[in-house]
Design goal:
homodimer; mainly alpha; Farnesyl Diphosphate Synthase; two-stranded antiparallel ribbon; 16 helices; EC 2.5.1.90 (chains A, B); transferase (chains A, B); magnesium (chains A, B); Isoprenoid_synthase_dom_sf (chains A, B); Polyprenyl_synt_CS (chains A, B)
């Protein structure tokens, strides 16, 4: 790795190294999001797909397969599968969260309607299963259909855990494994599987994606409170307003004991949030070291992700995946 | 077939002949709708699954497999798969249609919320793919994932065709093939496939389910206008109020020409429906013979369904499927 490379974000280096494959994925996605009969489908899908998502998940599939020397055509199908599943969950998430923005643009449920978002999401789920079936690999189908179930389960769990002050770190981890880590781990795992690597390496790819996904989500949840330094600013406190029990909040509630409890009951359980309550919450998060503690967890998961890759064959793409695990936590450095 | 049998509804006879298999399907459904982490999932699913749906689709899978002498365990998996897909689409349909009732009970979106209906539906889709993957049959996976895509496509098409007076009978057929016939045809087709019958018989099962599904939906659409005699009464005119272009309406609009057009533009395209408009619509449907014409189409599709079964091995279960095609149109006799 040259010094020039080192100064480039690992995401950009992966994108450069996988540019041909990514072009094939883009072509396949465009072909499969088409619908002969219902033009609404490609309209909605294109709005989201072409809004410039970073395509991290499909890159993970491609990188894993290529790092293990895969030379067939199906890593492209699997990468497109993963992106379709991701896009479908975004469409449904925006309906569930009543979001008005996604990737800096008005969300599909706002531009069209909830109906279109639900049904086009279903279409993309079905398309993803068609794509993975084309690989002819039952082991891969098992991993991806399990992941789809885990994702939906995690989302339902998040829905029912919201506003529940008794949510534990264990439950948080289950939610995060569902809503974020399950697709990361499946994405890298099936990349290894299609390359027919030994079970030990398949497991390593799973562990990598799982730990990376968890680290990524914890970082996101810390940044939602303005980062470790807990500054107020644009979009700070969305999770607080939505009464989501994320890791920093769970840690602060546990550390605060009976003394802080009435505040959390009022703002999270009952949802009564007054002027100044977000600032009080941020003070509590800081004074109890909750953001610091969450940061330690994120770093630990990032290290786990890197350690898992030691089982993976030595390859520049493997090194970029390792650097990606560093990059994820750089946002809270 | 004894005279006693003849007086029993074909649905009841199928249920009796397949009672052991149906019990296995029920057990499998209960096991797979469970969720270790998110109790909301089995709650919502049970509300719908145990509300006493007729399980026509899983019975079609079981009947096709058994009629062809299948003796393995996987017809049960496929029947449960088909019921899960059906239940998932019902959950999402109720969100899309903002329904308040389903199977005579308050709908899940009303009892819980839209969020739960969307996410539990996603969970059941994923579960259905896990179940079908367990059969190890890629040909079956292809048929069912294609069906899932066709269903979603049909629903989107229905959404965009609503209120559109230029909707043709051809578009109607595409919508119906998606929202209804695709799962009927896939259900019977995979029953034959798992029994390893020759392609000619697989095709016959597809044709049977396709024609039965279309006939079934046309009958439903006729009954929504109070049947061929077009009587007013409870729940008559729901499709008119929702401005859905169903076959009777499409035929009436075409037959009415420029003379009736202002009325349809006002009530369907613009959605301005005043006191007495439903009665006027019913008069037009009757005077143009639109309900009669739709009835002829339903009978034709029912005959097609029966004719397709001539390719299927002679078996009491095959005869019950044939009688089912008669029964479907009995409602508009």
């Amino acid at each position: 790795m040259s010094l020039d490379d080192a100064s480039t974000k690992p995401h950009d280096r992966l994108q450069a190294a996988l540019s041909d494959d990514l072009a094939s994925v883009a072509t396949l996605i465009r072909a499969r999001m088409a619908s002969e009969h219902a033009p609404r489908i490609p309209e909605v899908t294109a709005h989201l797909v072409e809004a410039g998502g970073k395509r991290v998940r499909p890159m993970m599939t491609l990188a894993a397969a290529r790092a293990c020397g895969y030379d067939g055509p199906y890593h492209v199908h699997l990468a497109a599968t993963v992106e379709f599943i991701h896009t479908a969950t975004l469409l449904h998430d925006d309906v569930v969260d009543e979001s008005e923005q996604r990737r800096g643009r008005p969300s599909a449920n706002l531009l069209w309607d909830n109906q279109s978002s639900v049904l086009v999401g279903d279409y993309l789920f079905a398309r993803s299963f068609q794509l993975m079936t084309e690989t002819g690999r039952l082991d891969v189908l098992r991993v991806l259909s399990d992941a789809a179930a885990t994702i939906a389960e995690g989302e339902v769990l998040q829905l029912t855990a919201a506003q529940d002050l008794s949510t534990s770190e264990d439950t948080y981890l289950k939610i995060v494994r569902g809503k974020t880590a399950a697709l990361f781990s499946a994405a890298t795992q099936v990349g290894g599987m299609i390359a027919d690597v030994e079970p030990r390496v398949v497991q390593a790819f799973f562990d990598y994606g799982d730990a990376l996904g968890i680290s990524f989500q914890i970082v996101d949840d810390i940044l939602d409170f303005g980062g470790v330094s807990a500054q107020t600013g644009k979009n700070v406190g969305d999770d607080f307003r939505e009464r989501k029990l994320t890791l920093p909040l769970i840690k602060a509630i546990a550390a605060g004991g009976d003394k802080d409890r009435p505040f959390w009951v009022k703002t999270i359980e009952k949802g009564v949030q007054d002027e100044g309550d977000l600032e009080t919450a941020l003070d509590l998060l800081r004074s109890h070291g909750a953001l610091e503690a969450a940061r330690s967890d994120a770093l630990m998961w990032s290290s786990k992700a890197k350690a898992a890759l030691e089982e993976v064959p030595d390859d520049p793409l493997r090194d970029m995946l390792r650097d990606l695990a560093d990059y994820v936590v750089e946002r809270i450095a």
